Amino acid sequence: MQALKKERSIMKMDIDNPIPIVDGTTITRKEFTEKYLKPQKPVILRGLWKQYPAYEKWTMDYFRQTMGDIKVKLFSTQKANPSETLSVAHAEMKFNEYLDLIEKEPTDLRLFLFPVFKHKPELLKDFGYPNITGRYIKIPFMFFGPKHSVTRMHMDIDMSNVFLTQFTGKRKVVLFPPDQSDFLYRLPFNVHALVDIDNPDFEAYPALQFAKGYTGYLEYGDTLFMPSGYWHHIEYAEGGFGLSVRTIGATIGTILTGLWNVTLQRKFDDMMFKIRGEKWFNYKKQLAIKRAEKAMDRRQAGAALQ
Fold first, then answer.
1. In a 10 Å sphere around its CB, with 0-12 CB exposed, 13-18 middle and 19+ buried, how is residue 62 labelled?
2. pLDDT digits over 12-29, tens only?
3. Of 26, 55, 145, 250, whose CB has the highest number of CB atoms within 10 Å?
4. Is 23 exposed, middle or buried (0-12, 13-18, 19+ CB in 10 A)?
5. SS3 of 94, please?
6. 65-105: pLDDT as tens digits
7. Which of 71, 64, 153 is nearest to 104 (CA)?
8. What does the pLDDT look like over 128-154, one tens digit per residue?
9. How crowded is residue 167: how many other Cβ atoms within 10 Å of its Cβ?
10. Is the dihedral of CA 24, 26, 28, 31 positive or negative?
11. Backbone φ/ψ region at 135: left (φ over 0), alpha (ψ -120 to 50), beta
């Protein structure tokens, strides 16, 4: 028994497969479509945004000077309930105070889906939508976070393809394809997973040993293409900010799933949580565990036949 516990303690997640990196200034639309969009494979596009003024214009000081007095709502990963979406803020302060905070002090507070363009619509003139693809959803979002803050494991609810560009700072990104959902203990009627991949508990969640993911680092000017339905765990290696733009999902099925998620499924989940509270969360947790066990059984049965 002691040997088994020791073995479990030294196990780690299978996330060493690197996210490919290509030159975003030279890649063609055809190459991107055939190698990454159609097969739904992630890639880091280095320098893709050099073509836009935002590449050099957007800095911490620029946002302090132009938007510093705006009050912003902040979210804490530590205080987040895994049964809920990030809809209730945990703190509020002026934007310039927050930028000072993430540059100088450790904090868990993140600025999530900040509607920066409602406050300063002229920023939309600082960038465009790269012509390596089409069908953009022209509702961009910005993300700000301090060093070591973490975005808990989740998939985007609308099932869109995401282009995430880093401006200031550095971020570590861990991705898992949609077919790894059961191994990650996805909560039903939700887009979050139960597990903490920074501190994986293989005893409580044994299916984690079968999950296979990718890891990459986003630095200044890098753009991550994250296909629809990919699970992502993001850590700010340095305080900074980035921007995401999205495109419609690659298939009709993906588009319909996204519509279902943002309308009926989310409303149903919110309603059931209000009615049943922790009992609803516990039910979903047990269902996630059962699905993980079945996925393990299928994997082990397949391995036995080989």
1. middle
2. 899 999 999 999 999 999
3. 145
4. exposed
5. strand
6. 999 999 988 887 664 555 554 556 788 999 999 999 988 87
7. 64
8. 999 999 999 999 999 888 888 888 899
9. 24
10. negative
11. left
Side by side, the strands of the sheet bearing 150-154 are 14-18, 212-218, 171-176, 231-236, 150-154
- Between CA 86 and CA 77 the distance in angstroms is 9
pTM above 0.85, yes or no: yes
> What's the per-residue H, E or C state across 173-234?
EEEECHHHCHHHCECCCCCEECCCCCCCCCCCCHHHHHCEEEEEEECCCEEEEECCCCEEEE
> DSSP character for 49?
G
Q: CA nearest 91: which of 105, 79, 103?
A: 79
